[in-house]
Design goal:
Largest sheet: 9 strands, mixed
Helix content: 10-25%
Length: 237
């Protein structure tokens, strides 16, 4: 009798395991009915890139984000009841138009300095910041326009004018070897910054100069030396 019980238990376990294997791998119970992408004009076939995803119990194949430069990240959600997969794409924010003067080409970059798409050549003033890069370098999609520390310093300098509500008409980089950039203010002097250090400490100096009577008389404000402010009413520099 004990032997019979053992055989019966083993048989039931095998039957249960076989049923589970059949349900998971062969029955339509867990087969994916549909895959949907929201937030970007990307098809499921482009995301899968030749791979298949048929069983909703399994992990979704890893998505190579670098193949979609305009997307910052993907979030995969599974609706087990309806056997549906919804992929939410979060597009990169268009922070700055970066124009290469020598190549006569402009790009959109995000807040990290990553190039993710071509941009139209800007004409006239606008709400979008524009950097004119005359350094002679060449870039493409998925490239960074500057090392992270230098781009962070550039962004920090531009944030000063956002906080002070001072409209920036243009930003220019002439020679990357010097590690400098120039900000052109609407109705104000041009301001020289260094890419080698964070200019956030210059906030108070710029605000004080902006409130002074001589603000519009300055040709430039030079902040390329840490903790030093130089001004000139002459445009010889």
């Amino acid at each position: 009798r004990q032997w019979f019980k053992t055989i019966l238990i083993i048989f039931l376990l095998m039957l249960t395991a076989g049923g589970a294997v059949y349900a998971v791998f062969y029955s339509p119970l867990f087969q994916v009915k549909s895959i949907e992408v929201k937030g970007a004009s990307i098809s499921p076939a482009q995301i899968l890139h030749g791979r298949s995803y048929t069983n909703i119990l399994f992990a979704f194949p890893q998505i190579d984000v670098s193949r979609f430069p305009e997307v910052a990240n993907f979030i995969v959600n599974k609706d087990y009841w309806n056997r549906k997969v919804v992929i939410e794409a979060k597009e990169r924010e268009r922070a700055i138009i970066w124009c290469l003067e020598q190549a006569n080409r402009c790009f959109w970059i995000d807040h990290t300095g990553l190039i993710f798409s071509d941009a139209p050549e800007p004409s006239g003033g606008g709400a979008v910041k524009v950097v004119q890069d005359a350094s002679g370098r060449d870039f493409g999609i998925n490239d960074y326009v500057l090392p992270q520390d230098k781009f962070g310093n550039l962004s920090s300098g531009l944030n000063i004018f956002d906080e002070l509500k001072m409209p920036v008409s243009n930003v220019r980089i002439d020679n990357i070897k010097f590690g400098e950039f120039t900000v052109f203010i609407t109705g104000g002097p041009k301001i020289y910054f260094s890419l080698l250090f964070d200019p956030k400490e210059d906030y108070d100096a710029i605000r004080t100069l902006k409130q002074s009577d001589g603000w519009k008389k300055f040709c430039y404000v030079d902040l390329r030396t840490a903790f030093r402010v130089y001004t000139s009413k002459s445009c010889s520099n």
